[in-house]
Specification:
3 domains, 2% strand, Replication factor C C-terminal domain-containing protein, DNA clamp loader activity, ATP binding, two-stranded parallel ribbon, Zinc Finger, Delta Prime, domain 3, nucleotide-binding, globular
């Protein structure tokens, strides 16, 4: 079993291909990777490719609850929801974020508690999780979306500026924007698709290296200029 096979160089993969050919009669090779396109065609053609999707939130939550009970970790529902939001279906990220959040609360409680309470740690809350993960708070991002929805461009831009001034990377902000819009319950489907379309184009520009905060301000302006929810819904019915 070879993990992270996509990090191997092409020369190393060619050598591995030869080894697989020589010992295929007695050995079964299992290669694990994140990006299958980085595996050379010679190996891909000799293997059965199995693709695994992200875990569902229910599956991740079940594991988190089991860990919290086993380790006697205090938590809030919103705290676990924040971990699910930041993990994006990755169990490893979820457990790492849970551990980091617990250690932060433990250090905070140790500074203000007596020796008997130092070992218990504090509470896993929404604020602690987003502080540890260093990601924009979804509630703040949701206010930007709501301002854009109502055509309040200045308010949306000011909120976006405050996020940028806190030092968040443009990739983190645009990623949180995408997730918040996708999970938004009160946006009409047609308007949600238009929002996601504009966010996707901006994400593409940022990924290409144009990661200035002006990209985010321009995105806010374009979202605010979109038709209102009522007009989009009426147009979709027609």
């Amino acid at each position: 079993i070879l993990d992270e096979a996509d990090s191997m160089t092409s020369a190393a993969q060619q050598a591995l291909r030869r080894t697989m050919e020589m010992y295929s009669h007695s050995t079964r090779f299992c290669l694990a990777c994140n990006i299958s396109t980085k595996i050379i065609e010679a190996i891909q053609s000799r293997a059965a490719i199995l693709r695994y999707s992200r875990l569902s939130q229910e599956q991740v939550l079940t594991c988190l609850l089991r860990v919290c009970r086993a380790e006697d970790i205090a938590y809030t529902e919103t705290g676990l929801e924040a971990i699910l939001f930041t993990a994006e279906g990755d169990m490893r990220h979820a457990l790492n974020n849970l551990q980091a959040s617990f250690h932060l609360t433990k250090e905070s409680s140790a500074a203000t508690s007596n020796d008997d309470e130092k070992e218990t740690g504090g509470m896993i809350t929404q604020e602690v999780v987003y502080k540890v993960c260093d990601q924009p708070h979804p509630q703040v991002v949701a206010t930007i979306i709501e301002s854009c929805r109502c055509g309040k461009t200045r308010v949306a831009v000011q909120t976006m500026k405050s996020l940028c001034s806190l030092g968040y990377a443009t990739t983190d902000i645009i990623g949180t924007l995408f997730k918040v819009v996708k999970a938004h319950l009160h946006l009409p489907e047609a308007l949600k698709l238009e929002f996601l379309r504009e966010i996707g184009f901006t994400h593409m520009r940022i990924a290409d290296g144009v990661n200035s905060s002006l990209q985010l301000y321009g995105l806010v302006a374009r979202l605010s200029a979109l038709p209102t929810a009522e007009s989009v819904a009426a147009a979709s019915k027609q």
